[in-house]
Design brief:
The chain is mainly alpha-helical. Helix content is 53%, strand content 6%. The protein contains six helices and two strands. Strands 1-2 form a two-stranded antiparallel sheet. The radius of gyration is 18 Å and the shape is elongated.
């Protein structure tokens, strides 16, 4: 499993909205400038996040995007999976019922299940608020 740029940029976009916006909408153009990401690419990503209900848009000259909930209420897993879909490391784990003809005799299946659970656990443990806190720790201290 590899998180694509879309998944990574979705996290950055959500962090930017939370850090800059507060209750005010944030324009994609401004996020693109701060994050050094193509505006068109961010528009594709924010469209998916909007459909998933993670952000909401407002139109007009003062329009833009804002979070639908507090940063503490989002997990990294929720944001990434809304963009990436399934985060399992092997195809046979993508369905509720394992349809692989070898699944009853596959010793490596247990490894893939443990890996999937570990990945999901970490992503579900980290909130958008945690990411924001980590970002603030990296910023130079103002005197």
């Amino acid at each position: 499993m590899k998180i694509s740029t879309r998944g990574r940029y979705a996290l950055r976009l959500m962090m930017d909205i939370a850090l800059v916006g507060g209750d005010a909408p944030v324009r994609i153009k401004d996020i693109a400038g701060r994050q050094a990401i193509s505006e068109k690419y961010l528009e594709q990503i924010v469209s998916v996040l909007n459909k998933a209900g993670l952000v909401r848009s407002s139109r007009g000259p003062q329009g833009g995007y804002r979070l639908t909930r507090a940063p503490e209420e989002y997990t990294a897993g929720e944001i990434i999976s809304s963009i990436e879909g399934s985060l399992v490391p092997v195809a046979c784990l993508e369905t509720e019922e394992n349809e692989c003809p070898r699944h009853l005799a596959c010793a490596t299946l247990r490894l893939w299940e443990k890996l999937a659970a570990a990945i999901q656990s970490v992503l579900d443990e980290v909130t958008l608020a945690d990411l924001i806190g980590w970002q603030k720790e990296l910023e130079p201290k103002k005197k």
